[in-house]
């Protein structure tokens, strides 16, 4: 699990060399895909999941799994590890919320800084995906 | 309990986490898994199956540990995105400065209150620092302007047990000079010199200050004449010494800067002297008032061994290449040890007197009086700057908290952290520069426009300018402050640190508490420093007030003016005493005049003379030293005109003439020392005619004076008399005729009228003689307090500034407290908390901070009081009044600073505050 500290092909422009262990279970995707790509995409996925409103961890994982039709799943450790790191960077903020007839949950909301990062990551992803498609298209042609 | 729960429990326990972290992590995972369980069951999975699935989902111990490590710590901040983004890179660092400046300017305009507060605080602190540095620069750094001043050493004879008030550094005699030329090779070049008044011109002479110096003087100081030459060696011989070198100022003033001045004649003291040179414009050495130099020619009397320990000269030498002060001192000590054996008659006397010749750097000697006060002021004003910068740092922190969002957004949008940091530093440097500019303008105005702003610490004739050194100092301080503030602001870009604690982090309670603690500590420091400064200023103030109340022992309304009788026109004693008597008689007849006298050494004047004397019948026991009381000559009527009362016997009445019985009057201090508990009148005072009289007194080598009166002791040199002062004896003019006197006039008329009458009278007797140094006694006393008054004024100003700044700091911390606890206050009010309880909340905080600050400050003040007492002779130590005043002022300031936040706390509307949450 994880990639060596200091690994650093900067694909999206927001990957940081010292981001350490992130495990994303891409069950139906090609395992040969660069791990960096997964890391970067995992951040992007989480940030976009909390964009609309604050969500708690389980809700985030469920939403990603549902929307990817089960293609992308997080295990508990990597999900919360990632959430904590994003929080440490100030991109999201978690708060315990108590509501009547519900369990106490920690909900994560996007911070202004996180919003800016999300915009940058989205743009990076768009550029990257377009480039991959173009290259893939040339090879097929 | 479900198996997955027990497994999670066990693994979390095994992970060995801190309990609070473990709780938080475990609870979150538990909630997550419970949610998943509910979902699975809701979707039709059996309970058993769901539990098995969940068991697989429970993270491993290693994963839990890893997870816990990822948790944010309190006070962490938005992480900067990678540096390799648009706008980053080293290239834009240099080119972005202009943009940074524009950005800085816009940010100032956005926040005018902050900008104004910061600029004004900085301006006040920097102005104060620049003013003091200007003085330090003019007085200390520019004390000696000749080449390589560090190598110049003054050698002075000191007799600490003899009660003689030595000048700084001590003086020397002519035989010393000749001895030391051979015996002290560490001083390669040596010269003797002294400054004194001379009458210059034929008709209506003017009184100027001259320096008589050995021809070695100019080569030693390494300054050449701008025109003509300085003295040749043979001009130091009697008969060839009628030469003079002019200062540039005198050449311009008296000769209109005429060309061809060299070779012309100038009458000095009634004797023509040939002008051989003019010195460069900026030349000055020891005495700034000197405008002409004369060669010293020593007669056989001055060179003789009998002249040893007649210390009438300043002896300065230049250290030989490679020689040190210690070497020079060692050679001096060896010379003196040899001389003790050469003159056994004086050996015991000198040992008892504690005689030693001390080598001291000229630079130290010249600033001996003002250096300590100036350094103390410098230290005080640096503290003021510190208080101001702490206030600004607190402001900057509050502001960078407010701008955290802005900075985080800029970082997230791709600004390089280095770029943002540089921009922050530029911004605060610009701010500091604004403050510096205003401060420099204020300093300029103070130095130029306010005569009492400390210029009195600067010797007459020295110009005080904002020279490059002052500018460099101001620039360095400004940059230092700017960078410091920039660093503080930068903390919102860097990872968590002190600033994170200081910063208003919002949600975290511990963060709030730590922030408050740090801000409280800073304000405690401010209050403490301000308290110490205020007490220090108060000590200077109260001791100054005490000085003003000191009884001088003489009438301060007396008008005084000096007259010098040139040797050429008044060659004999009868010539001189005749003239003086005629002058005094005519002045006595002037309207309004009640008493007239004259003296050689007017109190608070420049003349100083002391000479060894002892009571008849006294021989020193082992461990006892001869003493050298002040020796002053006075005319009949002097004591009456000055209002100095006789406590026993009589004063001089004019019956004391050459050939009559030698008489003397002593002051109470000397009488008490020589004849303790006995009547001094009728006893005899002995003085030596040659040094051997000290060890072997005979009628031939002694003078014997009958004491005819005892007068009140007066303050002769300063309002504070040194502890080791031994007193004074007065000789009558008639038996000891002077060539230069100060006339003392007690009159009912206005001082200006007295001066006019005095000049007219003198002119009617001899129109060639100038009346100079005309002053009312009160002015002489005031003049002696100039440096003291300036020090006190500056200290009070800085104390006031420190007080104001620390009050602002206190206000800041209390306002912060109220802002932080608005919700708590709202709840308390909603629950029926009384207004007084709320006010107590704020007051208590204020009291704690001020109380600790005062306690620390008073400890510092105790130390400062001791320091002041040891550095300044007229300060007795910690003055209770100063402490009371400082504490009262600080408490008053604290009340003012507390009032506004307390009022704000009382106005908290529970409905509004609670709705915000």
Give a quick rundown of the structure.
Chain A is α+β, with helices and mostly antiparallel strands. Chain A contains four helices and five strands. The longest helix of chain A has 29 residues.
Helix content of chain A: 40-55%
Average pLDDT over all residues of chain A: 70
Task: Detail the poorly predicted runs of chain A.
Answer: 1-34
Look at the helices and sheets of chain A and give the structural class: alpha+beta
Mean pLDDT of chain B: 84
Radius of gyration of chain A: 16 Å
Give me the oligomer status: heterodimer
Could you describe the largest sheet of chain A, including whether it forms a barrel?
A: 3 strands, antiparallel
Beta-strand share of residues of chain A: 5-15%
Query: By helix and strand content of chain B, what is the structural category?
Result: alpha+beta
User: What is the H/E string of chain A?
Assistant: EHEHEHEEH
Helix content of chain B: 40-55%
Largest interface: A-B, 39 and 38 residues
Characterise the protein shown here.
The complex is a heterodimer of chains A (141) and B (917). Chain A has 141 residues and is an alpha+beta fold. Helix content of chain A is 48%, strand content 13%. Chain A is built from 4 helices and 5 strands; from the N terminus they run βαβαβαββα. In chain A, the strands form 2 sheets. A 3-stranded antiparallel β-sheet of chain A has the order 2-5-4. A two-stranded antiparallel sheet of chain A has the order 1-3. In chain A, strand 4 and strand 5 form a beta hairpin. With 917 residues, chain B is of the alpha+beta class. Chain B contains 30 helices and 21 strands. In chain B, strands 1, 2, 3, 4, 5, 6, 7, 8, 9 and 10 form a 10-stranded mixed β-sheet that branches. Chain B is elongated and about 140 Å long. Chain A binds chain B through residues 1, 10, 13-16, 21, 56-59, 61-62, 75-77, 79-82, 84-85, 87-91, 103-106, 111-117, 120, and chain B through 25, 27-29, 31-36, 39, 57-60, 63-64, 66-67, 70-73, 76-79, 81-82, 84-85, 405, 408-409, 411-414.
